[in-house]
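Table 4 source record.
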Amino acid sequence: MTSTENKSSDMEDLDNANAIQDPNMLAALQDKLSKMTVKLEEDEMPLPPAVRRRVNALKNIQLETTKIEAQFFQEVHKLECEYARKYAPFYERRHGIVSGEVEPSKTETQWIGDEEEEEDKDDEDNEKQESDSDEKGIPGFWLTIFKNTDILAEMTQPHDEAIMEKLKDIRVAFPDSMGFTLEFDFAENEFFEEKILTKTYHMKSEPDDCDPVSFDGPEIVGSTGCTITWKKGKNVTQKVVKKKQRMRGKGAQQTRTVTKTIKEDSFFNFFSPPLMPDNDEECDSEMEAMLTTDFEIGQYIRERIVPKAVWYFTGEVIENESDLEDDDEDDESDSDYEVDVENNDNVVANETVTDIQKEECKQQ
């Protein structure tokens, strides 16, 4: 195979890898692959009966190991519930400080990143300022976190911010069945009646007897939001649009104003998740993408935002994530350069290296 053919093959592999990132393209590829698999099965020569029986025996063994794998994930869920109880006192302490219900001790306020000399110098000034201030807790703690996090900032609209300032805490609860519930604890506000808004994600970790091959660990089977009792004129998830219509009739010159309520972009649409289709209905690519996105957001809040809230408030975790992404991009660009050199004809590669060496000599 020539170097040009090698390069063409690598470019095709790269395009295929990018295509897999697209949920719609992935669904189309899976459909095409399934059809190809069926055709291959039809074209292949049947296995001898004795060999087929042995293959069936291997399938039965595989099914038993799959059942054990499902039990493993169920035990992991139990362990997660156990550790959630250990985290709870620390999260309660965090909530107390953020809300201003408790004041941290002097020992608690000392941080390894602060210089002792600066602390000693500013102690008296800080104590005086604190005594003069009526501000309690950490105002706008959760709103700042939302604004610092790209995925949540995109969901949070300007008209949501006044409500998010009333958000006191976010907690994760684990029911007995596999899944989790996000609890958003709000202070009394002028927007809705409820004090706690919830979003529950239902999961399962059971192989399907009719399709054991598809089992790949816990999967989301749906999510349940909650009803928000909005106060009059305060529903940020709806928008009233007025439109003038010309009245029908002979020589009619009059118009009338028609009002229509439409859906408005808002974070609080998060509590009205997309409905899973019935068993008899197929989930189209658009609905599947919506369900996947909904679950990824919930999982992100559960695994990242709640446990590491203070790092998102200060923005430090964002900086670390950005650094990691930059390192990955640098590694990819370096890898691409090496592949290009290796895939070029030896003469061309040697000439390129020679030119680089000559340029370096000139610079020296």
